[in-house]
Amino acid sequence: MFSLKVLTAVAAAFAAVSALPTEIETPVGSGCVITNIDQVSSVTSSCTNIVVSSLTVPAGKTLKLQLKTGTTLTFKGKTVFEATQWQGDLMEISGDKITVTGESGHVLDGQGAKYWDGKGDKGVKKPKFIRIKATGGSVFKGLHVLNCPKQCVSLNSCDHVTLDNWTVDVSAGDKNNLGHNTDGFDISSSTNLIISNSVVKNQDDCVAINKAQHVTISNLKCSGGHGLSLSVGMSKTSVSDNTVTDVAFKDCTVTNSDNGIHIKTHSDGGAGVIKNVSYKNIHLSGIRKYGVNIEQDYENGKPTGTPKNNIPITGLTISGVTGTMTGSNSKAVYILCASGGCSGWTWGVSITGSHKDNYCKNQPSNVKC
Ligand SMILES: *[C@@H]1O[C@H](CO)[C@@H](O)[C@H](O)[C@H]1NC(C)=O
Ligand SMILES: *[C@@H]1O[C@H](CO)[C@@H](O)[C@H](O)[C@H]1NC(C)=O
Predict the structure, then answer these.
(1) Which of 22, 267, 304, 309 has the most crowded CB, counting CB atoms within 10 A?
(2) How far is the CA of 164 from the centre of ligand 1 (A)?
(3) In the record, what terms sit under GO molecular function (predicted)?
């Protein structure tokens, strides 16, 4: 944009430096651009301002971006992950106090259609797409994720991390029901997270939390999937692995999905707890199965109809949850608690248009069913 002559002149004019457009700071030409996977380790170990530019990641390789503390990384153009049947992940980003962004028009393309067989975790081997392990106030913003083979974004061992203004679009997987288990954001073993102002179009949970503390999810627009979920109790032995506390979902919409809100605990796991979780101002439309589904009866990944009290659900707030259902299988509220398994809830649900009657068992006495 600027000629060298102009740049030199501007740099010399000391007072004008602060007025320089930020493009000049991007490291194009400075050796901190990754255009080939072979450059990743040298660039990430020497640079703190990195551009990943129109990169094709070879099949069967993880784009592993282990960033130095304080690094800014920007995706530019198309980052395409070539396909082969393997476990993945396709990409892993880790670091402390890092900032990861995408330039307008960029995309991270997982080429899901090359794997989709309608069977998700089963069927042909498929890689998970993006794993994030970050800390220290790291920010991931404005990323555009396209066509995840299966689970899209896994947050693992994160602390003080914000994801803002993401688009996760797996809507192409709706065709012939081929996309499956394409969770938007999976959260495990993490604390102090914010996910905000983002869009998820997929075929499974929009957000699924397994183990976390202090998480705020706000202004999400979810469609096509299974809603805003907690799935807790998969560990046989570790109480802390089976614990979700202090989580707030607010100001979200869930449309054309199986569920609006789904909380399930695994009765074949060990002890644990779900405590102080809130869903506030959640608007539903076109929900096919359950508006709000809370059940303590999962075994081998399926509901059994027999709830257990190994993961009590206390201090749950479901308020300002409104909207509409669609189709002959629709039920606004389904609650299956074990005796003594659910207590201290705040309840404000108003969902219309369901075909079947609500069902509730062992719910706290203030919960209208
Ligand atoms: C969100 O991210 C996109 C890039 O994916 C960017 O073009 C847009 O300006 C961002 N919006 C906001 C409000 O930051
Ligand atoms: C409940 O969780 C919310 C959201 O993380 C948090 O702001 C609030 O302080 C928690 N309340 C208690 C009593 O811990």
Answers:
(1) 267
(2) 9
(3) polygalacturonase activity
